[in-house]
């Protein structure tokens, strides 16, 4: 976890780390995750003129410029501000909402001072504020004029604000009529070109209310109408330079990246193309939230999984989406049974409304910088740098954890198989185990403690991203691992039994098979023990690879713990053999005998290369082990009655609850039976005829225990329940 923390992944739930290694889909936000979240205004449309760069302040009429400055300075959170750079020559610091900071930066680029306006109009003087939210997608602030009447400044998504505008300021700074055809023309000539360059378009507008009658401020639709457009600005949020490469790695790793954003579809499509989410010539879908809901919902407004299954496989960009749309998409992908395997979905979110989607996802990522406390609480992992590349690091760590467990299992099972067969067979044939008790303890120490430390500390590498995800039901022991386990077991058993029954002739030493019970340790059995340990030591190097890779030494120096464990075990074995004596049942060996033991151990590496040449596909008889539980494997009687209304992600939880209830019911029944017999025993002991022997209790036919049907207890049941009907006094 500390190493993941260095990779900017703060893990809140440990199981999420391994789950992330099997992720097949990532639904990512755009702002701040794929982009730098440092927004700047790069284009503007003011006074019937489209400026491709920031205009010169003198090119804008003073009264129009004054409206822009007041509209930006007042109609934004006063916590948003631009501060001087921390280091000389650096960029100014943006504090608060990044979109508002971009507009404030636009005011500063126009050589104006927004802080002077805020000092003149403090927050206490604001008459009414309509704050920004995901439904409104705009913000408005109302001021009371000194001469009576009110003025409202508005800003928001350009296509939404422009629909509510009936006038627009012309090149003379005078309002002129803004009709539907004018709006369509503006969208076509100004907004769409901006959006196609990946710019977020924001419209600034205002409205004056007369002094004769105060409007009904609660009637928001009437208030936010009849606006006058001041300007439309294009805000650029540059794509993080490392993101396209990170998304390419995800795609190679079999992970589909989808962008879920609140921006308009043209902006989202442009950013997705820059990131590599959308590829030219590919048949992918880009949808807006409204169109998405129209396609997946029936007449009653209910989500239909069948309709959703037709859309999500090709969906790559969901624009103008609400948090509800994100939750619907995530739930639909998780519950879907389309394809060879069920999807494992990761989601990023930063807002309070993202909580349900983060909870629903298999792995929820919250933004550490821009994320709210609610989002962080609902998440499994917090990205401390809000960067998409940190998600790729989480995938690498997740796959590394899974592979580390498999490596250890492969090594441990090989040692177990060989040690058990040697100890059992040797004891049956020679009447004495070739591996003594203390020697087996040392082998277990190598096998369990040291091996787990060595194989589980392998750092993740880029090669982990070159394979597809395992999926939800992938067995822990694959057929390749089974081939390695059995293949190395055959080699080791052949060597051990050859040394056991013919070793004394090869080395020209006394046989240890017929030695008396308390005789001193023999060289023969010491060679058997030493060769066994050497083979395990070199097989530990083989166990570093579980997918049939030939180069078992690749990256071995990146793991100093592994090198230390192997070398430490080797030197400890030398000390045990040469100086262990009777406690370890060892006798000192000559240099020649040591070289033979090491040579046979090195043979493990050569044998491993030979095993790699045997195609796993030809070994049909090998079985996998450690499958996950699928829906088909759950007996029908254990499925709840309302199974159709329960999504697949909840199946395993329900099954676990049923098993828990059954176990609890058995314990309760046993306790009641014991209490019944105990109370009956005490009553019987008080009678004179039973004092002679408590066994008389068993002969009294006064109590009958009948088996009642097993039942599932409710969680709110108490211990004060009446005794079951099975215990009845006649």
From TrEMBL:
Membrane topology per the entry is:
Multi-pass membrane protein
> Which part of the chain is the Plasma membrane calcium transporting P-type ATPase C-terminal domain?
656-702
- UniProt-recorded name of the protein: AT2B4 ATPase
Enumerate the transmembrane spans. Answer: 409-430, 485-503, 523-541, 561-581, 593-614
Q: Which Pfam families match?
A: ATP_Ca_trans_C (PF12424), Cation_ATPase (PF13246), Cation_ATPase_C (PF00689), Hydrolase_3 (PF08282)
Q: Which GO terms describe its biological process?
A: regulation of cytosolic calcium ion concentration
Predominant localisation class: membrane
GO MF term (any one): P-type calcium transporter activity
Every copy of the Cation-transporting P-type ATPase C-terminal domain together lies at 433-610
Q: Taxonomy-wise, where does this protein's organism fall, top ranks first?
A: Eukaryota, Metazoa, Chordata, Craniata, Vertebrata
State the gene name recorded for this protein. Atp2b4
**UniProt entry tagged with the keyword Nucleotidyltransferase:** no
Q: Where is this region: Disordered?
A: 705-730
Q: Please give the organism.
A: Cardinalis cardinalis
This protein's UniProt keywords? ATP-binding, Cell membrane, Ion transport, Magnesium, Membrane, Metal-binding, Nucleotide-binding, Phosphoprotein, Translocase, Transmembrane, Transmembrane helix, Transport
List, alphabetically, the InterPro entries matched.
Answer: ATP_Ca_trans_C, ATPase_P-typ_cation-transptr_C, ATPase_P-typ_cyto_dom_N, ATPase_P-typ_P_site, ATPase_P-typ_TM_dom_sf, HAD-like_sf, HAD_sf, P-type_ATPase_IIB
Instruction: Give an example GO cellular component term for this record.
Output: plasma membrane
Q: Where in the cell is it found?
A: Cell membrane
Q: Which SUPFAM superfamilies match?
A: Calcium ATPase, transmembrane domain M, HAD-like, Metal cation-transporting ATPase, ATP-binding domain N
């Amino acid at each position: 976890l500390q190493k993941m923390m260095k990779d900017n992944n703060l893990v809140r739930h440990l199981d999420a780390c391994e789950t992330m290694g099997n992720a097949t889909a990532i639904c990512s936000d755009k702002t701040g995750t794929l982009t730098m979240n440092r927004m700047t205004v790069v284009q503007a449309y003011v006074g019937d003129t489209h400026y491709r760069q920031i205009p010169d302040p003198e090119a804008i009429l003073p009264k129009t410029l004054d409206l822009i400055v007041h509209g930006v300075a007042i109609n934004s959170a006063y916590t948003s501000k631009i501060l001087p750079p921390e280091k000389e020559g650096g960029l100014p610091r943006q504090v608060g909402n990044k979109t508002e900071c971009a507009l404030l930066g636009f005011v500063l680029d126009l050589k104006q001072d927004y802080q002077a306006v805020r000092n003149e109009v403090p927050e206490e003087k604001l008459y009414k504020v309509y704050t920004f939210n995901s439904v409104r997608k705009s913000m408005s602030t109302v001021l009371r004029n000194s001469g009576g009447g009110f003025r409202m400044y508005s800003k928001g998504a350009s296509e939404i604000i422009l629909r509510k505008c009936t006038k627009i300021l012309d090149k003379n700074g005078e309002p002129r009529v803004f009709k539907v055809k004018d709006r369509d023309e503006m969208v076509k000539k100004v907004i769409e070109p901006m959006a196609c360059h990946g710019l977020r378009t924001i419209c600034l507008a205002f409205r004056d209310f007369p002094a004769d009658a105060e409007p009904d401020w609660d009637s928001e639709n009437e208030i936010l109408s009849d606006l006058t457009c001041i300007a439309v600005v294009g805000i650029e949020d540059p794509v993080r330079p490392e993101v396209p490469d990170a998304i390419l790695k995800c795609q190679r790793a079999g992970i589909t990246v989808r962008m879920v954003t609140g921006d308009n579809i043209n902006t989202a499509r442009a950013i997705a193309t820059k990131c590599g989410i959308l590829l030219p010539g590919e048949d992918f879908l880009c949808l807006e939230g409204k169109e998405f809901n129209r396609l997946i919902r029936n007449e009653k407004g209910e989500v239909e999984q069948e309709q959703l299954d037709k859309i999500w496989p090709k969906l790559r960009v969901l624009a103008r989406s609400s948090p509800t749309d994100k939750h619907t998409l995530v739930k639909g992908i998780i519950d879907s049974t389309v394809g060879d395997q069920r999807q494992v979905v990761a989601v990023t979110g930063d807002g309070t409304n993202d909580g349900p989607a983060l909870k629903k996802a298999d792995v929820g990522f919250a933004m550490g910088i821009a994320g709210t406390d609610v989002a962080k609480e609902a998440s499994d992992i917090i990205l401390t740098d809000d960067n998409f590349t940190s998600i790729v690091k989480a995938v690498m760590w997740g796959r590394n954890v899974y592979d580390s467990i498999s490596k250890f299992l492969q090594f441990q099972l090989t040692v177990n198989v060989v040690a058990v067969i040697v100890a059992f067979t040797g004891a049956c044939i020679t009447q004495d185990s070739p591996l003594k008790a203390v020697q087996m303890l040392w082998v277990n120490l190598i096998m369990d403690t040291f091996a787990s430390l060595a194989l589980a500390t392998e750092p993740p590498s880029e090669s982990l991203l070159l394979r597809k995800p395992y999926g939800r039901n992938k067995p822990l022991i694959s057929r390749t691992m089974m081939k390695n386990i059995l293949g190395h077991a055959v080699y080791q058993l052949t060597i051990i039994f050859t040394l056991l029954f013919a070793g004394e002739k090869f080395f020209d030493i006394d046989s240890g098979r017929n030695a008396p019970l308390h005789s001193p340790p023999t060289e023969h059995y010491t060679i058997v023990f030493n060769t066994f340990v050497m083979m395990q030591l070199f097989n530990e190097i083989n166990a570093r690879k579980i997918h049939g890779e030939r180069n078992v030494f690749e990256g071995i120096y990146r793991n100093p713990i592994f090198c230390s464990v192997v070398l430490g075990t080797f030197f400890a074995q030398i000390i045990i053999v040469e100086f262990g004596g009777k406690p370890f049942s060892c006798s000192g060996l000559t240099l020649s005998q040591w070289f033979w033991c090491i040579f046979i151990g090195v043979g493990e590496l050569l044998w491993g290369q030979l095993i790699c040449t045997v195609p796993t596909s030809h070994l049909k008889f090998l079985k996998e082990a450690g499958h996950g539980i699928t829906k088909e494997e759950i007996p029908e009687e254990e499925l709840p009655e309302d199974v159709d209304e329960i999504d697949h992600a909840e199946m395993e939880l329900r099954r676990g609850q049923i098993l828990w209830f059954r176990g609890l019911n058995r314990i309760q029944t046993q306790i009641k039976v014991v209490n019944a017999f105990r109370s009956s025993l005490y009553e019987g002991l008080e009678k004179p005829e039973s004092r002679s022997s408590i066994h008389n209790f068993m002969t009294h036919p006064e109590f009958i225990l009948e088996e009642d049907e097993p039942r599932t207890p409710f969680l709110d049941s108490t211990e004060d329940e009446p005794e079951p009907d099975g215990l009845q006094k006649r």
